[in-house]
Queue: 3 jobs
Job 1
Amino acid sequence: MQEVLLKPRMQFRISVEAENISPDKFANKTAGEIESIGIRMGNYKTTVGELFSVKVNGSGIPEDTKIEMEGDFSRVKRIGEKMTAGTILIKGDVDMHVGSGMSGGKITVSGNADSWAGKEMKGGELVIEGNASYYLGAGYRGESCGMRGGKITVMGNALDFLGEHMCGGEIVVKGNAGILPGLSNNGGKIVIEGNTSRPGSEMTKGMIIVNGTVEEMMPVFKPEGSEVVDGISYRKYTGDVILNGKGILYVKE
């Protein structure tokens, strides 16, 4: 088992591109080896050790590597990008693209996460204990698929366009979601425990469940009556009918 503790050496005023902070990159490395890993702050090339203090206990393969991050990471982007295994615990807020493209392992954010969290995620688990911003689990500009697998859980609220172009996996939001969740979906499952507006526009496959209020429905769904799912009665809709979509939208009665 390898445990790595990172703490910022300064308050970051410009963004840090931290895709190399990952169990895949840290596994079986000493503190000195981790400190020498490249990282970028704005357009300045630097190292992990110049920006963060590093402590290492033990050693292990990525599956047995845990990274704990203590301090202010609200200007640190791309943590855990494309990680395949291991654990990252971020004790506070985090900047954009956390868990982007990850395929395994688990990331927990104890605070809030900025936009594009879990972007194009393929597997693993991302837990955000605070709120998520825009494009949670979505695909980046021009991509036909966003999230493809894995699970994202947000204990608070999420803003607009969560799960855009989602093709697989599961997103659960315990609070409210902004407008157009599940936009252009082609698979996967979205559960919103609170309120939202205009879910499922242009979806062709997949499932959206809303346990709160839908403030505005898009006029592209066919009512299919009521259905009980896990003991809860929902109004069932299918669509987007304009695209001959087979997506399912459940709205709690």
Job 2
Amino acid sequence: MKKLLLILTLFFLSSQINFVSAQCTPDTSIYAAGSYLFPSKIPFATVNIPYSQVLTFKIPLDSFISGIKIHVDSAQLYKIYGIPSGYGYQCNKPNCAWNGGTIGCALLSGLGDSTMIGSYTMYVYVETFIKIGNNPPYTSTQRFDSSSYTFKVLRYLDGVFEVSPYQQLKVYPNPVNDYLTIELNDIQTNHNNINVFDATGRNVFSKEFSKPTIYTTTERIDLSVFPKGLYTVVLKTDGKISIRKVLKN
């Protein structure tokens, strides 16, 4: 990830646009990590497997440079260029705008087919609005900054993802009528997420989590409100994925 810093301030921020709001939760651990944008790299996508990745953004606070106050009013994602067909992004705030000193998130998701196979460079353009000065009238200014992600869409057997053993991910009952239990065992990685998709690729459940403190953890999901059909449960643990299919009656 390349980051261009504002000339006069600690900088960076960003999130997605295009849609008005998204079901995502910012990762507050970026405060401890000192990052402006997390993660620095995103997992590759796999053909015919629904993709879902949350990006978390930290908007800088006000600061002083040589005794002059730099007030970060807000920042807004202007555009992400280079996303392949079949994928898109949504912000958790209208207009993809956040106030200074806050955090936000964006959901990158989609479902690619074999025509999408390849490597894509996605450019993230952010417009930041700042005011300079200790007392009014302030000098208002704005600036565009950019960063980039390498986003690859690959065949399932291309060997980029190591498919972890099924004992790490269990789902039951299968078939399911109402509540589905997802059992996770021996998760040793710090950045993980689990998603449930219906047959059309719609995300019906999503959760990010850090390394559990116990060997086995479970999630109970109410599928009674969703239509009958085949559902896909995808567990991502850093560079590995586990996939289970479940039929809803």
Job 3
Amino acid sequence: MSISDKASIASPKFIGDNVVIEENVSIGKGCYIGHNVVIHKDTRIGENVFIDDNTVIGKFPMHSPASALQEAKSPQPAVIGNNCLIGAGVIIYRGALIGEKVLIADLATIRENTEIGDFTIVGRGVAVENFCKVGVHCKLETNAYITAYSELSDYVFIAPMVTTSNDNYMARGKERFKYFKGVTVKKGGRIGANATILPGKVINEEGVVAAGSVLTKDVPARKIYLGAPAKYFRDVPEEQLLKNQEEFKK
């Protein structure tokens, strides 16, 4: 175990074997820190946070000279809100801001300069790339991929194996550097299993992309798009709208 004498840890529930906590880390009371956890310098962790084995928090990003994305300059420390649950083998980068009561399941990755809102679930193996924003009460299910420069509003549902993209030029030509753009899913939008969303596409309020679809155009509010390429299928049923969901009225 290696804990810096410049770290602040308030009444932990448990600290496992081989834990590394670097300088200027702040950890609130009642936290559980599993075996082999590494918490990098300056990270701020709230109260009653559970961190499972082999997880890394506050990792500094690496940048390849060949990358089309801009290098993040001096990202802020990672921040984890109160009452979060963080699974085993998770990597959360420096510059990530995690709200309260967030669940981040095993093997997920949260990159730098990314925000995750309160009560959101990030499923097993999900990757949220850099410069993304995810709202409150979202659900990102197993092995979904959220590409860089994407924005998911509140109450968004992303099913397993969804793929989003941000480069229409597929890594060829200098023009691509001008047009990088992730996807936008507005409040209550939903994407079905194994769907693919092309760069820059917008799913408007409570719009739906059906499972297995390839989205090549924007989805209007409260419409369902289906197919490859996806086309209008029907309106979202009234009983599925957010205003009719009892769990969201609490």
